[in-house]
Every structure is written in C-alpha cells, then in structure tokens.
C-alpha cells in the first residue's frame, strides 16, 4: 500500500529532503512511498490525471537535483528487500548500498558497486556504477541480469537480454528516470574477495608530482588494483584496494601509508569519507567532471591545482570497464583512462577552472555526475549511443512523461 506524505504530514519535512543539501528546500506536492510495482502504477496514473511531474527517488544523491520536484516524489525506499540464491541477488530498487552489502556479505558474496552507504542501488546501477571492484569486474550495470520496470502507462515489465532487450540495454547506463520506474533488479554475484586496502597521503606541495605519477600508472595497472586519488586543500590521498599485489610506483615518498588486509565488508566501510574535513559540516557541493583518454601535461596540472576552488578527484578506468564494447550497453565511456572531477560550491567557478582541461578531455561525462551547464549534454552523456536511446525512449515512453532538464 502506498503511503502518501503531504506538507501537513508529520514526517514530510524529514522525508522530503534529498541527500544533496542544495536541493533541500524543494517542496514536493506529495511524497508517495510505494511498496509494490502496483503501487507505483497507481501513483503514475494519478499523476498523469492531475498533470503533475513525477520524480523517482531511491537514494536522492543526484548532483543536478533530479531526486526532487514540486510535483510527486515517488519514493521507492520501502522496496528494500535483498534475496540471494544460486549466485543471483534480487534487490529492491529502494535498497541503499550499506544494507545491500550487509545482506550480501552474510552469504559470502558481493557485486561491484560504489562505497557510499546511503547511495541507492537503482540510481547507481542505471547510470553505470563505478566502484573499487570495477577494474576487475566492470560496472555495476555490467552485472545486471534483469530489471522490473513500471512504464508510464502503468504496464509492469521485466526486461533482460531475452525480453524487452532494447529497454534492458538502455537501462544499463542511461536508465535513471527516463524510461520508467525501476522497482527490482537482478544481479550476478561474485564471491567476497580477499582484498588488501591501502591509504597513502602526501603534502599538498607534492600534488603535481603525485598526480603525474598516478596518471601514468593507475589507469594501466593490473586489473585487480583500483587506486583513486583525492587532492584536498592540505593533502593528497591515494586509496583503494587490490585483490592481488600492491605497489605504488610514485616518484614522491608518502608522508603516511597503511597497507592492510581486511575483511571485505570492513574494507568497503574504511574507504568512505577518506580525506573529508571533519569540521566542514553539511556540504553544498556541486561538481564538474569529464573522462580523459590519456595523461594531462604537467603545466595543465599546475594550472588546475593553482585555481581549483575545492577537491580534485581522479578515478581510474581501464581494465574490465574498457573490455566491454561501447555499444554493448548504454554506458558509452569504454575507452577512457580516468575520470576527473572538481568539487566546489560555485558552478561558474568550476567551469572556469575546468576550461583549460577541455582540450585534453574526451568531451564525455559520467551520467551519474550530471552537469546542468553542459552545452550538448546528451552527446556528452551518451556519445554514439544517443540515436538508439532516442528510439528506445519513443518505444517505451512515447508521450515523454518521464522528462527533466537534459533528459532524452
């Protein structure tokens, strides 16, 4: 049964706020907390009749505010069951990563996905899903076997490689709120790995040399190793895991280093928030990012570090990410070396700082890091897959019910 929260409901204020605080003042007309696909279909029918926009919400972490609306927030968080059998996990779309990892760990399996404990599995998967096991096992969406979806007209379909295959293709990398409301996902699992966690730090003064070493090494390392880099105002953090050997061929010696084998569940938890300022409080962060196919010149790195108004994050790609053809799923970014993200509070400033980087980038942007300032957002997000995605959109949402800025 659907639970409706309106502005006069006692829980409304707490529930309406998404994870991104900059969108915390958006006030939905109603929040519909759905327990079943039939509940979702009922809410969609009522919204169509009333002419209200609908926004599905799993975790509420969208950088562009797509988890909020003045219309109907369709909250799938009550659908948070996790069942595992025969190397397949069946996961409710409202499941947060912390609950998912706990349930999987209890039976000795996992899936490749991110670290953020409150991130929703649906949004992460539908945009691709980058994580510390990605270089060895691919994107989260590469492990997706099937998805249950409620379409705008109320039909409930279960799509896979064999059934409604075009929709299944589109959901793996471009599915966030564009084709329907995903209510359940099937994943292939893998045995919980024996892994080594590492965390090395340097002074900010060493940033140019550390970044230059990292970009020539981490994206091309053996698949079992995933080493991310975070540059803050005072420090540089190299962190990640390896299921094989660990070495970091950096030209500058770190000021701190810990390399330890941990149970995988504890290891994932230990990577959350590395480098965060404990006194920063609630952050009104926005980001600017792009995929890069090769190293940046040292002079460009120096300019970036001089002007960056906040953190600079580098995520290695390569490995299993890039062994899937760009057209095999809707996630088109299969030939990149790393993802570079600037985080700050001022979009205009971030765009200004990012400008010198653009000649060296691919022009492609991770769908889960949406950027409202992009001139040609659909090409940036979807590349050569854009044409086919538009065909899928016409087939499954011909009236364009599911729409938002930069949607298909």
From TrEMBL:
Q: What cofactor is this protein dependent on? A: FAD
| Top-level taxon of the source organism | Bacteria
Q: What is this protein called?
A: FAD/FMN-containing dehydrogenase
| Keywords for this protein | FAD, Flavoprotein, Oxidoreductase
Q: Which residues form the signal peptide?
A: none
Start and end residues of each FAD-binding PCMH-type domain:
23-192
Q: State the organism of origin.
A: Kribbella antiqua
Whether Oxidoreductase counts among this entry's keywords is yes
A GO molecular function annotation here is:
oxidoreductase activity
Q: Which family does it belong to?
A: Belongs to the oxygen-dependent FAD-linked oxidoreductase family.
Name the lineage.
Bacteria, Bacillati, Actinomycetota, Actinomycetes, Propionibacteriales
Q: Which stretches are annotated as coiled coil? A: none
